[in-house]
Design brief:
The chain has 2 helices and 4 strands; from the N terminus they run ααββββ. The protein is an alpha+beta fold. It starts with a helix and ends in an 8-residue tail after the last strand.
Length: 97
């Protein structure tokens, strides 16, 4: 392997490392005021109704939710605590429209 090939291989490896860092796993929960949540839900409802993509800033990262996303509502109960989660699921390979 030539020196140039080694350099290219190292550059590709560095690029892969940077990409992996950008797409690392996360699990963040963000609390909003009632007014903030209502505004976000209104924007989301408009996007769903018009089959448009939606974007939201969560924990300092902009998240793009593509049109055609799978939507579900989850209800959990444990002891005296109950929780409802609105979930949006899509494959990362989907292109933004």
């Amino acid at each position: 392997m030539t020196g140039e090939q080694k350099s290219l291989m190292m550059l590709n490896h560095d690029k892969e490392d940077r990409m992996a860092k950008k797409t690392k796993d996360r699990d963040i929960e963000k609390a909003y005021t009632p007014a903030q949540m209502a505004a976000k839900l209104r924007r989301l409802a408009d996007a769903i109704e018009h089959e448009k993509p939606f974007q939201i800033m969560i924990g300092g990262e902009r998240v793009y939710i593509p049109a055609g996303t799978r939507f579900s509502i989850e209800h959990e109960r444990e002891g005296n605590q109950e929780e409802v989660e609105f979930q949006f699921t899509w494959e990362k390979t989907q292109k933004r429209r």
